[in-house]
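INFO worker-7 received task bundle
INFO bundle size: 2
INFO processing item 0
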Amino acid sequence: MPFLIFLIALLYASVGLGGGSGYLALMGLFNVDPNVMKPTALALNILVTTIGTYKYSRAGYFSWKLFWPFAITSIPFAFLGGRLNLNGDIYKGIVGILLLYAATRLFTTARIVEEKNILPPPLWAALFSGAIIGFIAGITGVGGAIFLSPLILLTGWATTKETAGIATVFVLTNSISGLAGYWSNTFSLPSEIVYWSIAVIFGGWIGAEYGSRKLPDPIIRQVLAAILLLGGIKMLFSALG
């Protein structure tokens, strides 16, 4: 698990993501207790995106002007989502569906590299999408970038590099808010969290260093899509069984 988590952190950080959906997929494949999956994914997200925020901001790829309309609604809704504790099978079913969706979006946007006619999003669209994505992030344990990044790229609201920088900070704020919401109810983490944390710190550092300096590799996105696909199928079968 530590080695696989290291790889997921490295791959996700290289494209500006925290890895929450990847950790959930991996934990689903290894039958980790659903009660600890959400807080674990959020905690690991925080570690990876703290590093990513530093790397992408230093490289000049973070836009506060584009970030704040999404964040102002996502943060409180992530907290509300974090407070909700779903039944194990319901949680697995929801996460399974989200992982399959995320796999599809990652694969279909894998080769989006150059953008034209970049225009900022309408304020209402950013506020609305931020609220929806934030709530999903809090309730499931994903950071939200797996939904925000494809949205920004497909609508032409930012360049690929700016999207990575914004998504990294978006995941960081949502994960902190979601974990705070979860913590206000009950708090439980697996004993292995120490080893997994060390793994994501190294993986996140290497991935963010690579991603902040080079263009996103389509192959990396396709590999991530395959991981999410397997995890999503496993979670759905587990929920139904």
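INFO item 0 finished
INFO processing item 1
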Amino acid sequence: MIELLQFKPAFGLMNASPFCMKVEVFLRLAGLEYRCINDALPMRTPKGKLPVIRDGGELVADSQAIVEHLQRRCASQLPALLRAPETGTQLATRRMLEEHTYFTALWLRWIDDTGWQATGPAFFGHLPWPLRSVLPALVRRKMRRDLHGQGMGRHSRDEICARALVDLQALVDLLAFRPYFGGDEPAAIDATTYAFLANLLWAPIDNPVRAKALQMPSLLGYCQRMEARIGR
């Protein structure tokens, strides 16, 4: 059985990491048998990050590498759209979400004070007291430094929200009147889009980006269709 090594779930989602959730969404869409290992430590994985899958004796790290591994190994079991290579548009959509939208969401969760009030307890509330009193501040400080180095943390809150809203409108335009980003049925790109949108819409973190997204009927309807199909 495939083992999915990931962070402990939070916010009532499969996972509060969109990258971990992306892999689980793909596994569910594919109908592959798996089990979650929710206490995995990133520093003990091949790339120092999660998610990772253990498939037989092989460890595969990085969410996109995992999806491509499963597409190759399980090709005969997958619907045509799930095993199909990415189109140029799908690649650009995934890169926007993973390499731009992600950092706006990260800032709104970890640096913005309103987001931190929900994120801190969700990620660290289960830890024993001595660790719970020290680790959150250390991780938040590292996150602030990383976001400053990446560039998103150099912008104001209003500028960060504006960038995220442009990405959401791009998703509205890309989805158009189709039920899924893959077309009439989900493709691999839907594992990414659903994971990122569910983390934005359904994590209980109030901010202008989430408020606007909840007023976008096509994105909300899309997430509801995906939830009805594979869960939240």
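INFO item 1 finished
INFO post-check item 1: The chain has eleven helices and four strands.
INFO post-check item 1: Strands lie at 2-5, 34-37, 52-55, 58-61.
INFO worker-7 idle
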